Amino acid sequence: MSAEIAVHIEGLRRVFGTRAVLDGVDLDIARGEFVALLGASGTGKTTLLRILGALDRSDGGTVLVPEARTIVFQEPRLVPSKRVLDNVVVGLPRGRATREIGLRALTEVGLERHARTWPATLSGGEAQRVALARALVREPELLLLDEPFAALDALTRMRMQDLVGELCRVHRPAVLLVTHDVEEAIRLADRVAVLRDGNLVTDQVVAVDRPRDPTDPAFAALRRRLLADLGVHTADASTADAASSGSVSSSRLSPSSSPSSTGVI
Ligand SMILES: Nc1ncnc2c1ncn2[C@@H]1O[C@H](COP(=O)(O)OP(=O)(O)O)[C@@H](O)[C@H]1O
Ligand SMILES: [Mg+2]
Fold first, then answer.
1. What is the pLDDT of residues 199-244, one digit of tens each?
2. Closest C-alpha to 43, from 232, 225, 259, 251
3. Is ligand 1 within 6 A of the CB of residue 20?
4. Does 198 sit in the ligand 1 pocket, CB within 6 Å?
5. CB-based contacts of 3: which residues, under 8 Å, 6+ apart?
6. From 157's CA, which of 126, 137, 179, 184 has a CA 20 to 30 Å away?
7. Is residue 79 in contact with ligand 1, taking CB distance under 6 Å?
8. Over 70: is that where the pLDDT of 265 sits?
């Protein structure tokens, strides 16, 4: 395999009951590449992410991922009984060096003042920034983001998108961002893929100049194409809200079995 490849997925299958939720998915992600994965609710986006994160197993195919990988979920999943900094470094070896690394990550997400704050007193956006800091201190080669902005208000969501874009430019992990927000995908990603009926029906480079502006004709054309690929046909498919308020939305699932066939690059 090429040294430039961070993730290699080939013929990936995952079957629940009689339904093949993932039915031969092929996807490569290069080192430092940011890929957005779009798909309607229930198409298997979270399932794919969980397999990459070794939280679920596959039923066939090949999955190669870096060992250093972390997932950020829609909800921050902080430990309520630990202060913010202790949440960031949870699970890491204790000591001054670790605390300094944790503080640096908190500074990067703009929350250094909240190192000793309890999670319950944070806003939704702040809590999600702590979750990001917790992911960053592990210096992942692969960052898996499962609709991390979906629960935030519109303004906070845009700020978080900017922050994640900036942090990914600095740290250069490979990123797989699951979202049902077409605009978010185009704004952030180097490549966008659409999951439908168990397969990727689209996988294309986002050829829109940065900073990306929704009024750019190239942005608008890609948005129309992606909405069509998602199965959203509107007379005026000019807003991503057509997707998020219509048939395309998010869903959650509960933890399942242990990993069996996820290889490490
Ligand atoms: N552990 C499981 N057992 C049975 N069905 C599951 C399990 N996990 C997910 N599914 C089903 O697989 C489908 C895809 O789920 P999911 O990956 O959460 O979709 P998405 O994230 O795209 O909304 C859904 O129909 C869901 O109910
Ligand atoms: Mg999901």
1. 999 999 999 999 999 999 999 999 999 999 998 875 554 444 434 4
2. 251
3. no
4. no
5. 31
6. 137
7. no
8. no
